[in-house]
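Thought: the user wants the 3D structure for the chain below. I'll pass the sequence to the structure tool as-is, report back what it returns, then summarize two notable features.
Action: structure_tool
Action Input:
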Amino acid sequence: MRPRVRSAFTLIELLVVIAIIAILIGLLLPAVQKVREAAARMKCQNNLKQISLGNMSYESANSTFIPGVSRTGCCWGTWQVPILPFIEQDNIFRLYTNFGGLDNIGARYAAGGNASVANKRLSVFSCPSDTPGTVGTITNHNYVLNAGNTSFYQTQIPLGCASGSAGCVDFGGAPFGWYEDPAMLAAGGDSSPVNYSSGLASDGKAGRPRKIAEITDGTSNTMMAAEVIQGKGGNDYRGFTWWGGAAGFTGFSLPNSGDPDVLTGAGCGATPLNPPCTTGSTASRPRMVVARSKHTGGVNVSFCDGSVRFIPNTIALATWRALSSASGGDIPGSNF
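Observation:
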């Protein structure tokens, strides 16, 4: 009589096989996540490369770098508008009207037909490692231009300190202009409420375009653009780069620092969802945005020579500030 052939696994054998599969998945998952993050980081670096090349093409055509914000400050467009034709987005650029408008009734960055631009999410401005966010229907993005080593007011910190005095950080120049006019500093950076018929001294003086010759520290030693994190929760304006107060970063604080961003005139959202933030600008911490990313250990940045590098959070503060200044005469340290 032939012995009976067993045709199925026992329960113990089945549990052992399931346990082995679970262990293999547990070992494989971190590797898959690392590969996915490496691909996202490479895409992020490619985006910064395109932005850098677009800005350099703009410079070739106009003899200046692109303006960081329009001449009216917060609300008549930022660098994201004039760069569009130079990153193969000319059709979108043609939808935008009244960039830098000096008027009370013309379209602002998200008014009228301009909303069709500000409501678009552009892949070249978005890091795949971050979760897309919006403020209302307006899209947030992940890349901002370098406003220098201090604040968006582009003067010393603390405001009004004597150059060379203890604790005074001098503004070392920047490749892109923000709210550098003294009258704009006194007005908080923006004319609000807007009333250009009043003849404010700050009218039309924001965002002065810089010539490449003004980068006397060297284009390979001066950052052009960096990452920021998109705000979450509907009222966080980090990454709200159609608006002047969120379209730049400064090197005053280290990348991914625990220091707060200063979003005067906007909102910070819910703290558990977002990095530290305040809406109150002070003499010791005026309006500024810190470079931040979802990548482990640092941020991607591009330089004014078109190169792209990953900068670790552990970079020396003096080196980071030197890289964010364009004409400070400072030399990056040995850890760069």
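Final Answer: Structure generated. Residues 11-324 form one domain. The helical segments are 11-62, 90-93, 115-118, 182-186, 317-324.
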